[in-house]
Amino acid sequence: MIRRAASLVILWAGLSAVPSAVGITINTSYNPAGAGAVNPAFDLNAVQLAPIFNAAANFYEDVFEDFDHTLTVNFWYMDIADGTIGDHDLVSQAGGRETAANIQIDTNVGTGGAPRTYYFDPTPTNNDEFDMAQTLWRDASGTQRTDWFNVSVGSTVPDTFEIGFSGPANTPAAQAGFDMFSLVLHELGHALGLSGANTSTQNETMDGDYDFNPNFLFGQGLAADTVDQASDFIGHLDASTALMFPSLGGSSQRRLPSHTDLLAMAASHIYDEVDMPRREFYGGGDWNDDSNWSGARPPDFNDDAFVRASQGAGVNLTASLSNVGVAQNLTVAEGANVDTNGFRLDVGNDVTVTGIDSDVLINAGGELEADEIFIQDQAEIQMDGGTLDARRLTIDAGAQLEGVAGGAMTVDIAERLVNNGVIDVDGGAVMTFQSAAASAWDLDGLSGDGQLFANGGSLIFDTGGVVDAFDGEMTVDGGFFLRIDAPWTFSPGAVLDMNGGSGAGQSARIVGGAVTINGGTIDVDDVGGDGLTDGIAEFDGPVEIRAGAFSVGADDRLDFDNTTTVQNGVFTLAQNATISFDGVTTVDTADFTFAGDGQVVFNGPTTHSFNTVINSNGLVRQNGDAVIIGSMTVDGGVFDLDGTAGTTTIALGNVSNNGSMTLNVDQLDTINNVFDGTIETAEAGIVGRLTVNLTDPDDAWTMNGTLNLSGSGPLFQPVRVAGSDMIVSGTVNVANNSVAISADTTFNAASTINTAGGNSELIMRGATVVAAGADFNGLGTLVNDASGEMILLDGLDTAFVDLDNEGVLRLGASPGQVEVNGFMQTSSGVWEVEIGGAVASQFDSLAVDSTAELDGTITLSLLGGYVPEVGVTFDILTAPFGVSGVFDTILGGVDGATRIGVLYHPTLVQLLATFSADFDLDLDVDGDDLALWQGAYGATGVGDANGDGDSDGADFMAWQQQLGSVAAMAAATIAEVGVPEPTAWTLAWGCVMASLAVRRRGVWSIDL
C-alpha cells in the first residue's frame, strides 16, 4: 500500500520544474530537512531523484492544460515503516484542488532494513528499457469490467478505451529494482486528484467511483471504482491495471498513467481538457473533430495516435482530415483507415499501418510525413496523388504501397525504402520515388521477395542509389514503365514479367540507369498474356546480361534500345517472336532457341567478342555493322549477315585482337544466300577468317558486296574465307600483302578483283573458277595454291595481275584462251592443256603479257577423238618478254603412233604433233632418237613412246617400227619457221632471255 501523512516543505530552487505557460504548474523541490529525512548513500542529495520528479511533473503538465493551477511538491527520502515505498501528504488545498504536497520515498526494506534498489532512468520519458503495452477495455473480462468500473445505462464503452499501460524491464539495469519514474508518477497522481484528504476527491467518490466526463469518452458514461469502493481508501482505483492501483506490481516493471488514471484525476479536479499521451480515435469520421478522440481533442505532436476498431470488430472506421493533422506516433490497425483528404498529416516519429483492410489514403494535395513508416500484415498505403515523406519506409511481406488513381504522386525517402511486400501503381498513375541517399532503395526487401508492379501505372526511382541486387518480382504492362535511374542488378532468383501492347506508346518498358542481369527470368508477353495482341517490351537504358533466361511469346518483341552487353544468357523465342538489339551491342555467348519463325536482330553497331557462341534455329539478322573479336560461332538457323538493307559491314578483328567468324547455318540470307554488305579483314590477324558452313553441302553463298582481304607477308599467307562454296559477284580488294581463300570459289563475270600493289597476293587454296568477265585491277598476283584447282574460263584477261600456278590449272571450258600479265608455274604446279583441233580456238592457250617462268608438270589431253597430223604445232603460251624454265614432267599427249611434244622458244611454248618414237622432236625417227632412248632407258620418260611414263623395251619396239619415218610436209614447215630441236642452243637462249627479262610484280623491264 502507499500511505499519506503530514510533511514539511523546504524549497530547493535549483531543482524546481519550469512552469508551463498555460494549464497546471507543478513546482518540485528537494527538501533534505523534511521530517524524518535521510540522505541515502545510493542517491546522495537526491541527484538522481530530482530529475525523475521534474520529468513526472512535466508529464502531468502536458496532460492537464485547460486552466492555470499551481501545485508545489516537496520531496525527500525517508525510512518509511510497514513496507510502504512512497508516501504522499496533502499540505494545502484551495477550491477543492491541492496546492501543496509532501512526498517521501522509502530508503530501506522494512524499518532499518537493507537499502532499497531503485532504477533511476536517465531518460525517463523514453520507454526503450521496458516492453510497454496497453491494456484495453476489450482485454478485460466481464467480471473485471463489472468489478472495476460502472457503465452508464445505454452507454457502450469503446473497445480501445485504455485501462492500463505497463511493461516489464528488458535491460539488466531496469530489471534491478523498482522503477522510480512509476513510483513518482503514482505519488503525484494523488496530489492531482486522487487523495483521500482532498475535499473534491471526497465529494467525487461519495458513490464509490470516479465519474468520467462523457466528452472524454465519445459521449459514453463510465466510472472507475475506488479500491473495494471503501470510503477510507478513495485515493486508489480498483482496476489492477491502473497506475493508481495500490500496488505498482513489484520491481522490474514500469506502469504509466492510463486513460483510466487520467480521467479519474480529471473527474476529481474537474479538468475540462485532457491531453492524453496516447490518443484513441473512437469514430465520427473527422480527424480534426475534438469529440472523436479520447480526451476530447485530436492528438498533438507529443501524442501517440491510434485509429483502429474502437467500435468492435467488423466496424471499419475512417479518420478523415479536414485540416492539418499531427501526432508523435500513429498506428492504423484492425481494418481502420486514415484519409488525408488533401491535407498534411505530420507524424514526428513512426507511422504503423497494420492488418488486413487497414489503409492510409493520401489524396491529391495531401501529405503523410513521418520519421519512419511501417506497412505491415496486409495493410496498405494508397495514393491517388500527394506526397509520402519519411526518413525510412518499410513494407512488410503481404503489405502494399499502392498508387490507385491517375495523376502524379511522390515518395520522398531520406534514408531507405525496404520493400518486403508490394509496390503497385494502377489507374494510369505515376509514382515517383526520390532520395539523396546513396543506398536508398532496397526494392526486394531483406528476404528478397519484394514485388514491383507497374501494371496499371508507372514507377520512377529518379534519385538515390539501390541497396543490393534485386531478387524479387517485377511486372510492367503495356503503356507503362519502371524507371530506376541508379545502376541496379537483376539476380538469379528474380522474375520480370513484361506484358506490352502493340500500339504506339503501348510497350512495357524498363528505363533509367544501367541494368546488370546476373540471372533470373525475364518473360515477355502481350497484355493479359493471352496471345491475342503483339506485345512489345523495351529496355531503354544500358543493359549487361551475364546470365538469365529470356522468354519471348508468340508474335511478341523484346527491344534493347541502348548499349547492351550479352556475356551469357538463354533466349527462347516462340513463333514469330523477335529480340532486337538497337543500340551498341557486345555479345560474348548467347543461346537463342526458336520455336518457329522467330528472329534476333542486331540493329546497332555490334561487337561479337571473344568466344561468342550463338545457338539458333531461327533467324539472326545483322543490320548494324559488326566487329568480331576473338572467335564467334553461330550454330543453326539462318544468319542474315548483311541485314535487311544489305549494307552491313563485318570486320574481323580490331587493332587489339584477331577476329574469326564461323557460321554453321542453313542460310546466309533469308532468301538467296547472297551477301551484299562488306567484310573487312584488315585487323583479322594471322588466324582471323570467315568460315561459312552451310547445312546443305551442295549450297553456295554469294559475295555480292565487298570483300576486303588483308593478310601479312608471304611467310604466313593467312586464310580469310573458308568453308562452303563462295560465288563472287561483287568486289574483292586485296591489300598489298599475301592473303588466302580456302573455300571453293567462283569469280563470275560481274566480279571485280582489285590488288593494292606489287606485293598483293590472292592465294586460292580450293577449287577456283574465274569467269571471262571478271575485272582485275592493280599489279598483284593471283595464286593457285598447291592444294588448289583453278579454272580460268575462256576469254579471261587479268590485265596487270600475274598468275602463279602451284596447283592444278585449267583454261576455259574445254578449251580456252586466257590472257595474264605474268605467269609462273612452280615445281608443284600442273597445267592441264586440252587440244581439240588445230585452230587457235580449239586448244588451250595462255597469252602472257610479260614473262613466263616454267616448272612442274604439263598434262596434255586430246579432246573428242582428235588426233593431229604429224608436224602440226600449237602455240599454247606466248610471252613477248621471254620464257624461262621448262616443264619437269610432260604427261599424256600420246595416241597410238602419234605423240605431242613440247617445244620451248625464247618467247613461245609450242606443242608439236610427231611420231611417238621421235624422241628428239625433229619429225623423223632415226638413230638420234635411239640414242636418247638408250640414255633414258629405265630412268626417265624422255624415251617414252607409249605414254606410260618411262623408257623401256616397249618404247624400243615402237622405235623399231617407226624407224625411217619422215614427215616431209612437217619437215618443210619446221625448216621454214626454223624450229630448232631442244638442244643446248635452245637452253642457252632461254638463259639469255631470262637474264634480260627481269620479272617484277606486274611490270616487265629489259636491262640492257
What is the gist of this entry?
The protein is mainly β and 1008 residues long.
Primary descriptors:
single chain; 1008 residues; mainly beta; 33-stranded parallel β-sheet; 20-stranded parallel β-sheet; rod-shaped; disordered C terminus
Overall 3D geometry?
Answer: rod-shaped
Mean pLDDT: 90
Distance between the termini: 140 Å
Count of helices?
9
Number of strands: 84
The biggest beta sheet is recorded as: 33 strands, parallel
Structural class: mainly beta
Helix content: under 10%
Low-confidence stretches: 1-21, 969-1008
**Proportion of beta-strand residues:** 35-45%
SSE map:
Elements (H helix, E strand, L loop, with lengths): L23 E7 L6 E2 L10 H15 L5 E10 L7 E9 L2 E10 L11 E2 L13 E4 L5 H7 E3 L10 E7 L9 E2 H12 L7 H6 L4 E3 L10 E4 L27 E3 L3 H11 L8 E4 L22 E4 L10 E3 L4 E3 L1 E5 L3 E3 L4 E4 L2 E5 L4 E4 L4 E10 L3 E4 L3 E9 L4 E4 L3 E13 L2 E4 L3 E6 L6 E2 L8 E4 L3 E4 L11 E5 L3 E4 L3 E3 L4 E6 L7 E5 L2 E12 L9 E4 L3 E10 L4 E4 L3 E3 L3 E4 L4 E4 L3 E10 L4 E4 L3 E10 L3 E4 L3 E10 L2 E3 L8 E4 L6 E7 L8 E2 L2 E3 L9 E5 L5 E4 L2 E4 L9 E5 L1 E4 L2 E4 L3 E4 L3 E3 L4 E4 L5 E4 L2 E4 L4 E3 L3 E4 L4 E4 L9 E4 L2 E4 L5 E4 L2 E3 L4 E6 L9 E4 L3 E3 ...
Helix pairs in contact: 1-3
